Amino acid sequence: MKILAFNAEAIYYHKSGKEKKVCYIAYELITGGELFDYVFHTGSFSDKICRFYFKQLLLGLHYLHSNGICHRDMKLENILLDKEYNCKIIDFGFATKLEGKNGDGFNTTYLGTPGF
Q: Does residue 3 lie in a domain region?
């Protein structure tokens, strides 16, 4: 995955006049749609295709965890496919430090989509 800007900071100016520091991630253009749509419209994948996507997801999660990031909202809707059908993990709105707030390695806040 090409990340154009990672953990970049900017100032958000609310219409009320208040300023707020925000972070953002800028990605390459990802045009292949959600993995959810492919599963919904095609049904079960073959073992070979499942292994292909599962390996990519594990590599992506390993990269995040190796960099101290916990995604906290992994689901098929947050996995996009590029034009070559490679996985791209998106939606880091609930992401946090892997070490947790207290540094004990636990994130106890219930976030994300129930059922996932």
A: no
Per-residue pLDDT of the chain (116 residues; tens, 9 = 90+): 444 445 567 888 888 999 988 877 777 889 999 999 999 999 999 999 999 999 999 999 999 999 888 898 999 999 999 999 999 999 888 888 888 777 777 777 777 777 76
Domain count, the chain: 1
Q: Does residue 15 lie in a domain region? A: no
Catalytic residue among 73, 82, 91, 104: 73
Domain for residue 2, yes or no?
no
- For residue 100, CA distances in Å to 6, 21, 24, 72, 115 come to 20, 21, 20, 12, 22
Cα 48 from Cα 111, distance rounded (Å): 32
Is 82 known to be catalytic?
A: no
**8 in a domain, yes or no?**
no
